[in-house]
Structures are given as C-alpha cells and as structure tokens.
Design goal:
single chain, Glutaredoxin, 4-stranded mixed beta sheet, Thioredoxin-like_sf, oxidoreductase activity
C-alpha cells in the first residue's frame, strides 16, 4: 500500500467555462499517465462574469454583447466545439438558452467536498449545462444533481434557500483573483506549480511528475 501523501491539484474553475470542462477531461487523461502517483483533486470557485444576475441572462443576448455580434461568437465557439470533440465532449451550445450566475453551483461544489463527491458533482454540472442545455440557476436542478451524486438532497434544498456559504464563495473568488488568477481553468499542483489554461494531458502529467520528483527537496528544506 502506498503511504506517500497525495499530490494536491487545486483547480480554479467556473462551470460555465467550456475550457474548464475540456481541462477536466485532459486532467483525467493525465492522471491515467501517472497511475503510481497518488493525487487529490480539489475544485475552487471562479466567476467568468460576476455581473450576471442571479436569474441569468439570455445566452444569445449575452454572447452578442460579449463578442460584438453572434457571427464572432459562433466562430469562437466552433473552435471550442472542435477541441471538445477531441476530448469526447459532445458540446451542444445551441441547446443553451441562458448564461447563468454560477454562485449557487459553487456552493453545491463546496458542500459536495464533505461527501467526497466533488468531482462527480462538477462533472454533472458540466454535462447538465454544456450537453443537456439545462438552466444552472434553477435550484431544483442543483438539488437533483446532489441527489444523483449521493448527497443529502433535502439538506441541499434547504441550504439553497438561504445565503449559507455565499460569503465564503465570494471570498474564495476574491482570493484567487488576488493571487493572480485571471482566467480559468487554473491548475495549482502541490501548491507550488501553476498551469494556466486547459493544457494538454501530457503537460499536466509532466507537471505532476515534476511535483512528485521535487517534493523530497521541499520537505528537506522545510525540515532544515
């Protein structure tokens, strides 16, 4: 049995970010390349657009405003769709009707860590939005996802009606921005190495191997 402490990979992400979904797939592929290195993945919040209202905004209008017209938006997303296809993600951008405020999604992700189902919840949120075109601002969707992931969905339903941990999520987003995170996904490996963007699986795997190879040196420096 491997008694070596796990290498932590902290992922700063937003569930309305398609590159974060792609980055998740690439991380999964990277982990298969380093099966002998124990890894603990932890998800942290970010908001691509904190100005979105709690009820979200019509996606066509949102993209048109953001890109200066749907023609430019469609060209941008066609590249993302191609990248997703390479990773086995069947993006259906046409099915998405609303650009959501994701604070409640981040609260659900935070709560899911206690049940050790964080990765499952993140995956279900990505799929619900990017593949099924569901509305991430709806509490009933978040409750359903929590139930499917094995959480206490009745408790989640109650908490979503309050502002529990909302300040914590906003503070964590602020901390990420203060530390220099301007875009997502951002992978922080072993608290020492940062990979900004949805890097290829080989690059992520190399980062994990480098962190593993050099942590003995870090431990020695800490002890001295």
């Amino acid at each position: 049995m491997n008694s070596t402490p796990a290498i932590t990979i902290d992922i700063v992400s937003d569930v309305m970010c398609p590159w974060c979904y792609i980055g998740k797939r690439r991380l999964e592929a990277a982990l298969k390349q380093v099966p002998d290195i124990p890894v603990e993945v932890r998800w942290h919040p970010f908001q691509l657009d904190a100005t979105l209202p709690k009820t979200g905004k019509d996606r066509q209008q949102y993209l048109s405003d953001k890109f200066g017209g749907m023609e430019r938006a469609n060209a941008f997303y066609s590249q993302i769709k191609a990248a997703g296809t390479e990773e086995g993600i069947p993006f259906d951008f046409d099915a998405i009707k609303l650009s959501p405020n994701t604070l409640d999604c981040h609260r659900l992700i935070l709560w899911s860590r206690a049940d050790d189902v964080q990765d499952d919840v993140v995956e279900r949120l990505f799929k619900a939005y990017f593949v099924d075109g569901e509305d991430l601002t709806k509490s009933e969707l978040l409750v359903r996802i929590s139930e499917e992931a094995g959480m206490q969905s009745d408790l989640v339903e109650q908490l979503l009606e309050t502002e529990t941990d909302l300040d914590k999520i906003i503070a964590q987003i602020g901390k990420a921005q203060e530390s220099g995170v301007t875009g997502v996904p951002c992978f922080i490996i072993d608290g020492r190495f940062v990979l900004a963007g949805a890097e290829k699986a080989e690059t992520i795997a190399a980062g994990i191997m480098h962190a593993d190879a050099t942590r003995t040196d870090v431990e020695a420096e800490t002890a001295s």
